[in-house]
Specification:
eight-stranded parallel sheet, globular, 8 strands, 282 residues, binds zinc ion, alpha/beta, TIM Barrel
Length: 282
């Protein structure tokens, strides 16, 4: 006799928030209506879209305007795109933030660029981090291969007045309590679903209560999907694209790793997102 695998969790009555996505990405644009309907069907009630470069700020603003109550927005310069900035970028950013409810992001450091621009990248990051403190707005942070410098910067500043979200956190687990004291939140998504990513699971297990959220990083960092879940979209290279509808699956992994119920994880991560992103919600 064979034993049937357990059915997929019933997520119909649970509410979820996607703490970090790039819904403005051109890879999603032609199919965005489908992406959003699948997100709603999966129980997503809040989707945070983070801009990456000056050129996508109007698109992100238009998305939030088109989906009030569902899509919230942040504006900023991602460390990969600092060379595309205009001379007026910081003034434009200030004007945008004065004009509408929004956060700052995606900002950060990336030690893998090897383009000779690390000093400028850090200056652009710090200018935006300072602005987020001055305006008391939450900021969304990217960090890859620059953990020593990032922790040095964040842990020597006062606690952030509105909260920082380090998305797809891959830093050291033992830094989590000190980061929480600086009002830092972390989020998990696709990377947590990869069975070989022991670091992500350790961080998910050790994240302080109330300090962890779920993210899709759509269309990047897609999950490792189990057989019972349908892959929806693929990119030009044929690889799966991430989207918010996969959040409940990442939530299931998070629940398993922490030994908590799926409903408890949905409630905690959605409440943390609503609290952190309160200034973005009109
Ligand atoms: Zn991102």
């Amino acid at each position: 006799m064979t034993i049937a695998p357990p059915p997929p969790p019933d997520t119909q009555n649970l509410h979820w928030a996607d703490a970090h996505s790039h819904l403005q990405d051109p890879r999603l644009a032609p199919r965005l209506d489908d992406v959003l309907s699948r997100a709603r069907a999966a129980g997503l009630v809040l989707l945070h879209a983070a801009a990456t470069c000056e050129a996508d700020w109007p698109t992100v603003a238009a998305l939030a305007d088109a989906h009030p109550g569902l899509v919230i927005a942040s504006f900023g310069l991602h460390p990969w795109f600092i060379q595309e900035k205009s001379s007026a970028w910081l003034r434009t950013l200030r004007a945008l933030l004065a004009d509408r409810p929004a956060g700052i992001g995606e900002i950060g450091l990336d030690g893998r660029m090897n383009d000779g621009l690390d000093a400028e990248r850090e200056a652009v990051f710090l200018a935006q981090l300072d602005l987020s403190c001055e305006l008391a707005l939450p900021a969304s942070v990217h960090c890859r291969d620059a953990w020593g410098r990032m922790l040095d910067l964040l842990l020597h500043r006062p606690p952030h007045p509105a909260g920082l979200l380090i998305h797809a956190y891959s830093g050291p687990p033992d830094a989590l309590p000190a980061l929480a004291e600086k009002n830092v939140f972390i989020s998990f998504g696709g990377t947590l679903t990869r069975p070989k990513n022991a670091r992500a699971r350790q961080n998910a297990r050790q994240a302080p209560a109330g300090r962890f959220l779920l993210e899709s990083d759509a269309p990047d960092l897609p999950p490792d999907l189990p057989d019972h879940l349908e892959p929806f979209l693929s990119g030009p290279d044929g690889k799966l694209l991430s989207e918010p509808a996969y959040i409940p699956y990442a939530g299931q992994i998070l629940a398993d790793v922490r030994g908590e119920s799926l409903a408890g994880i949905a409630a905690q991560t959605t409440a943390a997102a609503r609290r952190l992103f309160a200034p973005l919600i009109a």
